[in-house]
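Human: I would love a firmer grasp of how sequence relates to backbone shape in proteins. Could you go through the record with me and say what the backbone is doing? Here is the record:
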Amino acid sequence: MMQNWQTTYLGLRALPREISAFELQAFFTFDVAERRVIDARRGDAHKLGLALHIGFLRMSGRLLDSFRVIPVALWRHLGTKLGLDAPEVASLRAMYKRGRTLFDHQQIACTTLGFRWISDHQRRALVRELRDEVSRCADRDRLLVRARQWLYEHKLLVVHERAIRTLIASALTQLEMEIGATIQAQVDQAKLTRWKASVAELRSDGRTQQSWLWSAPAKHSTPQISEVLERIDLLYSLGVHTHLSDLPDLVVRRYARRLISRPPSAGAKIKEPARTVEVACFLRYCLLIATDHLILMTQRRIADLWRRAAAEIPAAVNWAAMYKTLLAELVALNSESAVQDTELRARLDAVILATQQRKQPSRASLVREGLITGIRPVRSLLVAIAKLPWQAAGDHPAVDALKKLRDLYDRNARSLPS
């Protein structure tokens, strides 16, 4: 089984100029069966050459045909392992006078390690593997590494980079055709036509709908939140929320970014099914992003309201106000000249006791009162947010609260139930 650290060497066309002791031990150490094949060659040069090809194939999964000079450390290591005198400096050109011998050693190395050239059937299998991988990875370089790993694990010679990138393009085309067929089956043609027209439609400010949907809000003010809600309402009116929910987010994001990378005027020139896939994924991605923006902006707006309400609360108890209230009550008692001394004394005791028992409201209650006052300017936003079909994994108090709030708004209730 191939180790993860080996992926660094896969696809190498030539030996590295500097080779470490670990690499020599990992790739250029031979078991009994390999030694038997090497020892069957005539002459020390042919034995060293075959050992070199076997080690390089084990390292890179490719055949060694570079005429670069072989590192001296590698020749010495092979000489030690095989018990031969190794040359100080030599290249494949100097070692193989006949091209046929080089070819024979390459074939023997493949036979010894069990490698073979990829067939048409295996090429189709690799495309299927890449097709599954592209739904989880959008980086072509990582797909290139995965293709080399698959070839090495299946004992197939790693082909050159251009051929692998062609297979990656085939896998992407196959995935695109499958997604296009799925969209055509799920979405009626009239709605698809409406989606394509909506993307290219011009707004009153001169921007296209495509640019407007893609632009990110600058702040979390009430107008900005209202604009995000407007985008969500538009996408819901187009029915985007009922389709493409089974597509991986990575695939949706890839095709959405591919569409936005071109000007809207160039969109109509894109052939099918690429045009359908890009438009559908773009609208779906915009809906997901707009919803995320709305949640984040709402959280920040709530934090602003809470901070503002907390900032308006005095940090300490207002003793001056309490003493003014007590003084006013005492003045009122003193002004009643007809009150008997016994009754006046009893009423004074009651005022003092009430003052001692009087408590300042808690900070939390004062913050709640401030929030009730501060929520009025954003009540319309709260109404719009409550109308959205919020969902959560399991029971969530916020979803339950929004549902109750939506029911109250539908009944035109002006107060919360006790």
